[in-house]
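for the recovery benchmark. tokens below, seq after
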């Protein structure tokens, strides 16, 4: 296997294991899945957030984004607000319960990410990894 091929395998394995670790902790402590946390972070960071904003940021299909938002709405964490300029579309915003859940989960998320990254890898190496991943991500987007 080429070095690039092994890098890809390692990235996928690390992402899967890291996702599972963070997801399990968020579920246990806050009753929220990592995917939900991710979407709620996108919604909270973008005033006037639309489903298409989630599609572009998270790299999922419109159908997957819409169904995921429906689940957030059903959980009481998000609501759709009519777009006053275009009655055919809506904006997404977190409810007070959603904002509270996200705020509570944020520290847990950050602790778990730190546990598996900065506690194991020196800061300079993490910065290099982050820059390399940003370069690849930008090219893919």
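predicted aa per position
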């Amino acid at each position: 296997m080429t070095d690039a091929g092994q890098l890809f395998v390692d990235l996928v394995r690390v992402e899967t294991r890291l996702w599972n670790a963070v997801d399990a902790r968020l579920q246990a402590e806050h009753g929220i899945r990592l995917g939900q946390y991710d979407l709620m972070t996108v919604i909270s960071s973008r005033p006037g957030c639309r489903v298409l904003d989630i599609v572009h940021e998270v790299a999922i299909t419109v159908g997957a984004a819409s169904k995921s938002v429906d689940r957030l709405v059903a959980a009481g964490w998000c609501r759709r607000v009519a777009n006053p300029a275009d009655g055919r579309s809506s904006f997404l915003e977190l409810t007070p319960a959603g904002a509270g859940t996200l705020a509570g989960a944020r520290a847990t998320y950050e602790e778990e990410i730190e546990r598996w990254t900065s506690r194991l890898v020196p800061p300079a190496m993490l910065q290099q990894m982050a820059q390399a991943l940003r370069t690849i991500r930008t090219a893919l987007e």
